[in-house]
């Protein structure tokens, strides 16, 4: 039996995925989470074989969850199921040790097969995205990405500094580095371009 935790912040999507996967006799849903922190607690408590997670979630993103799994040496393998068909996301997911990356519009049987493949130690990556992923590399550092994400949410440099325990000047430096690397005119354009590329 393959034991898995499902993390997805949209209730309808989570319910649909759970219902589909419950139809498979060799898959056992042992926990559901609506945000990243809740998913992390379930992973530590239940030690499932797999985590099936979205990328964008409150608390921790799917990619941050995958990084934590990797950093803490958990045996749980991570499969991302998302609407974000962007090569930048896939590259970051692979760097975070993700074993599966599928789009939500994939057929249900492909998801079940992907979970079995990953459980056996293989990889299950959307083939078209895999080709794209090697075309363009992400120029941002983790800290630049973090600062840019908060700027895109409408926070000013001082608010970002307070939230990340950085100085105001350091935040401004990170923002100007990101703007320069992306070749745009301001932080909003930098956020838009980085988001479009899947680098956030």
Structure notes:
With 200 residues, the chain is of the alpha/beta class. The chain has two domains: 2-133, 3-Layer(aba) Sandwich (Rossmann fold), CATH 3.40.50.2300; 142-197, Arc Repressor Mutant, subunit A, CATH 1.10.10.10. 53% of the residues lie in helices and 14% in strands. The protein has ten helices and six strands; from the N terminus they run βαβαβαβαβαβααααα. It has helices at 11-22, 36-46, 62-71, 87-95, 108-119, 127-133, 142-152, 157-164, 168-182, 187-197, and strands at 2-7, 27-33, 50-53, 77-82, 100-103, 124-125. It has a six-stranded parallel beta sheet, with helices on both faces. β4, α4 and β5 (100-103) form a beta-alpha-beta unit. The longest helix has 15 residues, at 168-182. Residues 133-198 form the HTH luxR-type domain.
Instruction: Identify the strand order in the major beta sheet.
Output: 2-1-3-4-5-6
Q: Tally the structural domains.
A: 2
What structural class do the secondary elements suggest? alpha/beta
Strand content: 5-15%
Average pLDDT rating? 90
Give the end-to-end Cα distance, rounded to a whole number of Å: 35 Å
CATH structural fold name of the largest domain: Rossmann fold
Second rung of CATH, namely the architecture of the largest domain: 3-Layer(aba) Sandwich
Number of strands: 6
- The SSE string, one letter per element, is EHEHEHEHEHEHHHHH
What is the CATH class name of the largest domain? Alpha Beta
- Per the principal axes of the C-alpha atoms, what is the gross shape? elongated
| Unreliable stretches covering 5 or more consecutive residues | none
Separate helix tally? 10
Helix content estimate: 40-55%
Give the biggest sheet. 6 strands, parallel
CATH superfamily of the largest domain, by name, is Response regulator
C-alpha-based Rg, rounded: 18 Å
